[in-house]
Write a structure and sequence with these properties.
The complex is a heterodimer of chains A (238) and B (266).
Chain A lengths: L7 H34 L2 H32 L3 H34 L8 H25 L2 H31 L4 H33 L23
Helix pairs in contact in A: 1-2, 1-3, 1-4, 2-3, 3-6, 4-5, 4-6, 5-6
Chain B lengths: L16 E12 L2 E12 L3 E5 L6 H7 L10 E9 L2 E2 L7 H7 E4 L10 H11 L6 H14 L3 H4 L12 H13 L5 E5 L7 H14 L4 E5 L3 H7 L2 E6 L2 E7 H6 L4 H7 L5
Parallel strand pairs in B: 3-8, 3-9, 6-7, 7-8
Antiparallel strand pairs in B: 1-2, 1-4, 4-5, 9-10
Helix pairs in contact in B: 3-4, 3-6, 4-6, 6-7
Classes of the chains: A mainly alpha (238), B alpha/beta (266).
Chain lengths: 238, 266
């Protein structure tokens, strides 16, 4: 729908809500990158900044929800306009959750900085975080450009994140089995890895919303579940 | 999730086809007002016709009880079957047809007679009753169906035109219901009513659906969304899209429908 509404104020409302989402997306992408950077570079100041900035993301989510409630009450949107209102509310919720995970990563960075770094883990987590940020960027681009194909591609690519998480899960287990002194940092690192994997799921949810927004239908194929750790058991060999 | 059968009150029940229209065309003199309309109107269902002014929705509605017969320049072609029988067949008496296919108009138009006589008029001219007692009963049940009985039961001999606008419209509905029609056509029945009276008429339409097939023409898309289970969108004399109301308002297939219902220029 590139056509304009007869009531131009309706268009302005819709544009304002989408602008909030774009801003929120920008802040969340930045939080993911900064949190993982603070972890790898042991930058306490940056970690603190990520934690402080989260309230701006939360505030934007509330703003989007309020604006959508107002739009529904006053403009009674239908068809693609209705789908947009429903979509942005969910997308705002997903972004807020991703922001929380980034904040949690920054919190754990504060603890991890005090400890001896676990070989290579911080760099691997940063790579994973960059991957998620790339996916989020594509999901938001798909939203702006109303590109269902790009959104479907994002849904497929979430599998890569899951595989990175599976690999890290095994790695952390091995480290912990090797030396019990690794347990505390590895537990924190594992939570960071798990939370990053969950960020990927929220990005997937955003991409699914985009497919719904553009086509009016939910994506039909059930997304491949790439996280296999819930069925995994490790036995110490001796 | 949003398409589960019978998940909401608005879901369409699988009832049989009450009116089948095939290749209906209407010309008013030189003007081609309705172009090749095919539509199946279901029994015990509220069907809404929406579209901009001059799109042909009222014209089509008026074909369904041969009201266009009264317009000298109008030419109707194609086929309209009511329960499988062609209503334009020469043997069909339009007056009898209109008892079966009742109509309620935009402006309340009660006869300048008593409330009682307004409702009794149809049954009288069609000879539907044998006794005064029977007629009294029809008047009472019709006024009850139109949710007007409690307001007028003590003043049935007062003139119908003395009622409020909303009451007058409900009186007209009672009058239409009194001949026990099978289909009720409503041409913007709420456009002259306030929101409370509109809500009462809409509530009534929903109740009437258990007995009749109701077809409503409305300029209020919110009204179409509220009262109907099926919606047809007309544009420039064409039937552009006809589907479950829920589908039309969440995910219409035709860009012209989308433009119209979302209030975009189109």
């Amino acid at each position: 729908m590139t056509q304009e509404h007869i009531q131009s104020v309706f268009d302005r409302d819709l544009e304002a809500i989408q602008a909030h989402i774009i801003r929120m997306g920008g802040l969340v992408e930045e939080a993911i990158l900064d949190a993982s950077k603070s972890l790898e570079e042991r930058d306490m100041e940056l970690a603190t900044r990520v934690r402080d900035n989260d309230s701006a993301i939360d505030g934007l989510e509330e703003l989007v929800n309020d604006e959508c409630a107002r739009l529904i009450a006053l403009r009674a949107p239908t068809a693609v306009d209705l789908r947009l209102a429903l979509t942005v509310m969910k997308v705002a919720g997903n972004l807020e959750r991703i922001g929380d995970y980034a904040k949690n990563m920054a919190k754990r960075t504060g603890v991890l900085i005090q400890m001896t770094p676990v070989n290579g883990a911080h760099a691997a987590l940063r790579r994973m975080a960059r991957e998620v940020q790339g996916l989020l960027k594509d999901a938001l681009d798909a939203f702006i450009q109303r590109d269902a194909e790009l959104a479907r591609d994002v849904i497929r690519r979430d599998r890569d994140i899951d595989q990175m998480y599976n690999a890290l899960f095994r790695e952390f287990l091995t480290f912990m089995m090797e030396d019990p002194r690794n347990i505390t940092p590895c537990m924190h690192l594992h939570f960071i890895a798990k939370n990053t994997e969950r960020m990927g799921d929220h990005v997937t949810s955003i991409a699914e919303q985009v497919v719904y927004l553009v086509t009016g239908e939910r994506p039909d194929d059930v997304r491949p579940k790439g996280d296999t750790t819930s069925t995994l058991a490790f036995h110490q060999e001796d | 999730m949003y398409d589960t059968p019978n998940s909401t009150e608005a879901s369409v029940s699988q009832t049989h086809i009450k009116i089948a229209a095939r290749g209906v065309q209407v010309h008013y003199g030189e003007k081609h007002a309705l172009k090749d309309v095919d539509v199946d109107i279901l029994d015990k269902t509220v069907t809404a016709f929406i579209g901009p002014s001059g799109c042909g929705k009222s014209t089509f509605l008026r074909c369904l009880n041969r009201m266009n017969d009264t317009v000298s320049v109008a030419r109707v072609s194609g086929e309209i079957l009511l329960d499988g029988e062609d209503i334009y067949d020469k043997r069909v008496d339009p007056v009898q047809l209109r008892a079966k296919v009742g109509m309620v108009f935009q402006k309340p138009n009660p006869f300048p007679k008593s409330i009682y006589d307004n409702v009794a008029y149809g049954p009288r001219i069609h000879g539907l009753t044998k006794s005064k007692a029977e007629l009294d009963e029809i008047v009472e049940t019709s006024l009850k169906k139109a949710a007007l009985w409690n307001e007028v039961k003590d003043r049935l001999q007062e003139t119908g035109t003395g009622l409020s606008g909303g009451q007058q419209q409900r009186l007209c509905i009672a009058r239409a219901v009194a001949t026990a029609p099978e289909v009720l056509l409503m041409d913007e029945p709420c456009s002259a009513l306030d929101p409370i009276a509109t809500a009462q008429v809409e509530e009534l339409i929903d109740e009437l659906r258990s007995t009749f097939s109701v077809v409503i023409v409305t300029h209020s898309m919110q009204q179409a969304a509220r009262v109907s289970q099926k919606t047809a969108f007309f544009h420039l004399g064409n039937l552009v899209e006809y589907d479950a109301t829920q589908t039309i308002f969440t995910n219409p297939k035709d860009p012209r429908t989308e433009s119209y219902i979302t209030g975009r220029i189109g």
